[in-house]
C-alpha cells in the first residue's frame, strides 16, 4: 500500500515552528523520566592504555581518516537534532574504524526523528544522545540512503510511530523507505541495518580519552551559547575567550581526539559539530582540554560499540572468503 503524504505546506509550517528553539542551539534535552532513562548495556570492560599518546585524532591515524561526514542540522530546515547527529555520527565513525575504513556511510539521523521521543530520545525540539544509543542497541538503525535528513519530525508525513507499538518488528519495518521509478513511495524491510552490542557513558578527561583511544569517537554535550563557540572560525577555544565559566550544556557534538601544543603546553580536544563545513575548521573545532571549558568534561558523554555480526557482514561483503572446492 502506498503511503499518503501530509500536504507540503503543512510540513513546512510545522518545521518553522521549531525554528526559534533550534536556531538558539538548545538541542540537548536529557531524558528525565526515570521510566525512560536507559540503564546502559556494557558487556566487556573498557580496554585501558597504560600510557596515552600526547596526540590522537581519528581524522588522521597513520595518514588515514576514519571519521564520517560533517553533517548539518540547519539544512534543509533548522532542526534541534544535534543529539541525533552526534549519536549516529560517533557510531558511524566507529563502524568505519571497526571495518578498517571499508564501511563509509552515515547512519540515519532522520530515523531517530521519525519516532516518538519516548522511543528514540528526542525530536527537532532537542533530545538525548544516550537514549539514542539505547534505541540503536534495541532496534538497530539504517543509513541515510534509507532515510535522508529532512530536518523535521516524522519526515515525509510518515507519522507512524507514536509510542503505542514499540515492538522490534514494527520499529524495524518503519525505518527505511524507498520510491520506485513512478515515484510511489513506501516502507521496506529490505535494507542494511546496523546495531550496537554495547552502549554506555564516559565522564571526565581521563575516561573520555581512554574510551576514544580504545574504541573511537564519543558524543558529548557542551555549552554552545558563548560567541567563542557560536561564531567560531578556528583555533583553540580557551577559558580566557569566554565571558564566564560554563556551568550547563545545551548542545551535543562528537569528540574524536585530542592534542597538545608543543610550545605552550595548551591541551585541546578535537570535535565535530553539526553546522556544516562552512562553520569552524571545515565543520570541526578545538577546545581547551583538562579544565572543563564549555562544561564539556562534566559529562557524561555517550558511546556505542558496533554490533559484531554487522561488522562481520560488511567485511564479508567487501572481502568474501574464497569458495571451498570439493
Approximately how much helix is present in the residues?
25-40%
CATH topology: Cathepsin B, Chain A
The level-1 CATH class: Alpha Beta
Please give the count of helices. Answer: 10
Say which CATH homologous superfamily is assigned. Answer: Cysteine proteinases
What characteristic shape results from the CA principal axes?
Answer: globular
Rg, nearest Å = 20 Å
Q: For the terminal residues, how far apart are their CA atoms?
A: 47 Å
CATH architecture: Alpha-Beta Complex
Q: What oligomeric assembly is this protein in?
A: single chain
Write down the secondary-structure element order.
HHEHHHEEHHEEEHEHEEEEEH
Main sheet makeup: 6 strands, mixed
Number of domains: 1
Structural class: alpha+beta
Percent of residues in beta strands:
15-25%
Number of strands: 12
Low-confidence spans: pLDDT under 50, at least 5 residues? Answer: 1-24
Give the mean pLDDT: 88
Amino acid at each position: 500500500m502506498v503511503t499518503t503524504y501530509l500536504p507540503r505546506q503543512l510540513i513546512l509550517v510545522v518545521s518553522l515552528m521549531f525554528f526559534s528553539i533550534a536556531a538558539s542551539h538548545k538541542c540537548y534535552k536529557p531524558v528525565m523520566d526515570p521510566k525512560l532513562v536507559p540503564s546502559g548495556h556494557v558487556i566487556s570492560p573498557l580496554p585501558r592504555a597504560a600510557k596515552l599518546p600526547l596526540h590522537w585524532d581519528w581524522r588522521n591515524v597513520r595518514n588515514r581518516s576514519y571519521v564520517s561526514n560533517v553533517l548539518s542540522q540547519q539544512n534543509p530546515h533548522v532542526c534541534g537534532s544535534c543529539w541525533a547527529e552526534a549519536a549516529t555520527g560517533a557510531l558511524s565513525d566507529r563502524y568505519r574504524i571497526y571495518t578498517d575504513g571499508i564501511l563509509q556511510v552515515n547512519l540515519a539521523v532522520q530515523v531517530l526523528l521519525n519516532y516518538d521521543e519516548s522511543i528514540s530520545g528526542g525530536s527537532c525540539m532537542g533530545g538525548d544522545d544516550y537514549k539514542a544509543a539505547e534505541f540503536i542497541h534495541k532496534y538497530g538503525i539504517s543509513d541515510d540512503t534509507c532515510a535522508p535528513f529532512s530536518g523535521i519530525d516524522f519526515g515525509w508525513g510518515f507519522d507512524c510511530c507514536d509510542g503505542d507499538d514499540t515492538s522490534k518488528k514494527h520499529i524495524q519495518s518503519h525505518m527505511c523507505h524507498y520510491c520506485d521509478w513512478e515515484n510511489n513511495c513506501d516502507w521496506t524491510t529490505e535494507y542494511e541495518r546496523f546495531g550496537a552490542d554495547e552502549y554506555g557513558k564516559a565522564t571526565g578527561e581521563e575516561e573520555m580519552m581512554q574510551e576514544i583511544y580504545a574504541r573511537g569517537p564519543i558524543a558529548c554535550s557542551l555549552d554552545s551559547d558563548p560567541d567563542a563557540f557560536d561564531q567560531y572560525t578556528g583555533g583553540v577555544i580557551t577559558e580566557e575567550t569566554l565571558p564566564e565559566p560554563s556551568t550547563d550544556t545545551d548542545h551535543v557534538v562528537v569528540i574524536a581526539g585530542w592534542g597538545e601544543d608543543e610550545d605552550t603546553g595548551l591541551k585541546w580536544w578535537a570535535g565535530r559539530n553539526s553546522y556544516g563545513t562552512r562553520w569552524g575548521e571545515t565543520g570541526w573545532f578545538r577546545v581547551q582540554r583538562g579544565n572543563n571549558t564549555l562544561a564539556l568534561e562534566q559529562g557524561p558523554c555517550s558511546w556505542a560499540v558496533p554490533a559484531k555480526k554487522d561488522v562481520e557482514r560488511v567485511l564479508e561483503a567487501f572481502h568474501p572468503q574464497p569458495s571451498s572446492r570439493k
